[in-house]
Amino acid sequence: MSKYRIVLLGTKGGPAIRPGGPWPTSTLVELGGRTIVVDCGLGVTRGVTDAGLSLKALDLIFITHLHSDHVLELGALLHTAWTAGLATPVKVFGPAGLNRYWQGFVQALEFDIEIRIIDEGRPDLREMVEVVEFGEGEVLRDGDLSVTALRVDHPPVTECFALRFEHQGTAIVFSADTAFFPPLADFARGADILLHEAMLEEGVERLVARTGNGARLREHLMASHSLAGEAGTIAARAGVGRLVLNHLIPADDPEIGEADWVEAVRKTWNGTLTIGRDGLVVVVEGDDARNREDLHETGDAEERFA
Ligand SMILES: [Zn+2]
Ligand SMILES: [Zn+2]
């Protein structure tokens, strides 16, 4: 098993933020010596630096789909890394349409990019970022690291992909945004960690009332996302080592706490469980794995900036 670290930078589902609440989706994965960011919702840049990482270390970025809670800050992350002295190329993988997003971003920032090239002697950001659009199947094979994608069920978005990262026998799987999708269990088979999105039905009603666009929002949520118990079912069928819930809906309802999520998942999943929150770190270091995971269970050193 290879050493890895996962930092949940943002764990709420949906793009809106509220005072004191959690942030939209982004996750940092350090695996096989690579620095990988999965999804770039608002707050990703702050999240990466709060995790103690130089933006210059950015290496690989994966976008599961083009909903704004997964891609809004991609351009700002890359641009900020560039102003922080990024000297090595970054590869960004995402679904069809990602290239258009990136071209639109650099066009919007054209004034700033060109003036910094002339005025500060910086390399051209547009030449440092390679955008790779992917579909289902193998996305990347680079040394011992491999990444594969599975199209999931997130209507009306058709280009939405679960991702499986593998390195020397370690596998980490992201469900992306999806309704209950049984093929995901095969895709996640035997993974060490499954990060699965989750929703609590009782919270959805209050969320819908608070947001103000009622029936349509409820309809979208129920058709395009998974209930916590369904995430547990996927984890159980896949036989994963640990289920981590993220992309929580609702994520900032004062009447819903960790115990409610645990109760909902325990109906379908008896294995190791982590309810995601911003800043939570899951660390595994070779033979020391058991020890470090226990630290997490006691809520100790791994929650450095929760
Ligand atoms: Zn989302
Ligand atoms: Zn989505």
From TrEMBL:
InterPro entries in the record: AtsA-like_MBL-fold, Metallo-B-lactamas, RibonucZ/Hydroxyglut_hydro
A Pfam family matched in the record: Anti-Pycsar_Apyc1
Higher taxonomy: Bacteria, Pseudomonadati, Pseudomonadota, Alphaproteobacteria, Hyphomicrobiales
Gene3D superfamilies given in the database record: Ribonuclease Z/Hydroxyacylglutathione hydrolase-like
Keywords, alphabetical: Hydrolase
Organism: Aminobacter aganoensis
SUPFAM superfamilies reported in the protein's UniProt record: Metallo-hydrolase/oxidoreductase
A molecular-function term among this protein's GO annotations: 3'-tRNA processing endoribonuclease activity
All copies of domain Metallo-beta-lactamase, residue ranges: 23-225
Protein name according to UniProt: Ribonuclease BN (tRNA processing enzyme)
